[in-house]
Amino acid sequence: GRSLAAALVMRDALSLEEILQLYSQPINEEQAWAVCYQCCGSLRSRGRRGESPSRRVESPADIRIWKDGTVTLGDGARRPPAEGKSEYLHRPETEVIESLGIIIYKALDYGLKENEERELSPPLEQLIDYMTNTVEADGSKDEGYEALDEGVEEENDKGDVEVIQSYRDVMKLCAAHLPTRSDAPNHYQAVCRALFAETMELYTFLARIK
Amino acid sequence: KGKSLYNIKQKHDSGIKAKISMK
Hints:
heterodimer, A: 210 residues, mainly alpha, 6% strand, B: 23 residues, alpha+beta, 1 helix, elongated
């Protein structure tokens, strides 16, 4: 048990799947908001650094929560691309957002029976509804080359998002969920940091008992 | 199982769970 506990302490990231399995219960709503915000934030900056295009989120194993509270799309269970279908085709943002919304909903629904449904707060249900019903950007709102420092948390930005077309739109909706939008980056990073820390604590505790 | 921190209701055909399960 001690060596496993020691090995765990070395970990600096956990997948959402590991978190769900460990607690064997769904994530809470604030964690859902936070993972959406942080994941879209890293996808957005990744796109601007011209890194390899992101893929659809296929399972909670693809979502990694890091010790510092950042959230990335990892390789999950690295599967070879299906025959003829290149896994590395650039996926439009809307497709990645839709897949993220589905996985986040499933994380909120984790452990519930097929005929049971969790009552979500209207704003979170709306976020997930918008994420899973995205509309292909018509190019006029090209997300890729927006100014890096254009924050999503401007207070005077009253343009409420009605339709999601970009990672930035998701982040704006998540920021609008807070009393002060400008708190979004720190707040959501803190929520994810705590999620990682609490899970590691439980992991280590269970390993010691084993 | 302890009391859950969220309310559970009957799944609704027009609810978000039904919509997402069709995706």
